[in-house]
Design goal:
Radius of gyration of chain A: 13 Å
Structural class of chain B: mainly beta
Number of helices of chain B: 0
Oligomer: heterodimer
Strand content of chain B: over 45%
Number of strands of chain A: 9
Order of helices and strands of chain A: EEEEEEEEE
Shape of chain B: globular
Number of strands of chain B: 11
Order of helices and strands of chain B: EEEEEEEEEEE
Largest sheet of chain A: 6 strands, mixed
Structural class of chain A: mainly beta
Distance between the termini of chain B: 40 Å
C-alpha cells in the first residue's frame, strides 16, 4: 500500500488560511469516508484533529476543517496561529489493509 | 483520563528480538481496537499492526508481516508487540494508538518508545 500524497510544506502568515491536500486512490480516500488528520509538534505524539473526513473531536479548535472531493481530501486551517506550526498527516482506511498514512506536511507560520 | 504508556524499547542488534508493551488506563480497554504505529527518525508515520477487541482479527503492514506479532491481554489492560528478526529499517519510535469509535481513526496515542536496531 503506497502512502497518500501530501505537499512537503505549506506556509502562511498569521491570520491567513491554508489548505493541505491528501491525494489517494479509489482503494482508499475516494472509496471511503474514513479520512482522518493528525497534528504533530516536534518530539510529541500525534494528535487527532479531524476524523471521518470532516468531524472535529471535542476540544479541537473550529479553525480546523476537513473535506473531500474524489480521491483528494483536504485540511484547512483558518486564522493561522503560531501554535499551528507543526507537521500534519492524513490517514485513510484502505481496502488492502486498515490504514495508510500520508507523506506528511510541514506547516510554517511566517 | 485516557492514558497509553509504551515501554520495552531500546538498542538491539540486527536479527535480534524485542517485546514492546503498552499499558492502558482511563477507559475500558477490552472495548477498543488497538494499533501500533511507528515513525523512523525524521520520517513520517507508518501504521504497523491492528488488533480487534478480542484479538481474533489482526492485520500487519507488509513491511513487518512474518516478523512482528501483535497481542493483547484484556485482563491486564495491555497491548504487546513482539518484534523478531529486527532490521536497521525497523529503527523508529513506536506508538500505541487506540482506534476511535465507530472505527478507522486513531483517537488517542501514547508518547512512544524508541527502538534502535544497530550493531
Amino acid at each position: 500500500q503506497s502512502a497518500l500524497t501530501q505537499p512537503a510544506s505549506v506556509s502562511g502568515s498569521p491570520g491567513q488560511s491554508i489548505t493541505i491536500s491528501c491525494t489517494g486512490t479509489s482503494s482508499d480516500v475516494a472509496g471511503y469516508n474514513y479520512v482522518s488528520w493528525y497534528q504533530q509538534h516536534p518530539g510529541k505524539a500525534p494528535k487527532l484533529i479531524i476524523y471521518e473526513v470532516s468531524n472535529r473531536p471535542s476540544g479541537v479548535s473550529n479553525r480546523f476543517s476537513g473535506s473531500k472531493s474524489g480521491n483528494t481530501a483536504s485540511l484547512t486551517i483558518s486564522g493561522l496561529q503560531a501554535e499551528d506550526e507543526a507537521d500534519y498527516y492524513c490517514s485513510s482506511y484502505t481496502s488492502s489493509s486498515p490504514y495508510v498514512f500520508g507523506t506528511g506536511t510541514k506547516v510554517t507560520v511566517l | 483520563e485516557v492514558q497509553l504508556v509504551e515501554s520495552g524499547g531500546g538498542l538491539v542488534q540486527p536479527g535480534g528480538s524485542l517485546r514492546l508493551s503498552c499499558a492502558a488506563s482511563g477507559f475500558t480497554f477490552s472495548a477498543f481496537e488497538m494499533n501500533w504505529v511507528r515513525q523512523a527518525p525524521g520520517k513520517g508515520l507508518e501504521w504497523v499492526s491492528y488488533t480487534s477487541t478480542s484479538g481474533s482479527t489482526i492485520y500487519y503492514a507488509d513491511s513487518v508481516k512474518g516478523r512482528f506479532t501483535i497481542s493483547r491481554d484484556n485482563a491486564k489492560n495491555s497491548l504487546y508487540l513482539q518484534m523478531n528478526s529486527l532490521r536497521a529499517e525497523d529503527t523508529a519510535v513506536y506508538y500505541c494508538a487506540r482506534d476511535g469509535k465507530p472505527y478507522w481513526y486513531f483517537d488517542f496515542w501514547g508518547r512512544g518508545t524508541l527502538v534502535t536496531v544497530s550493531s
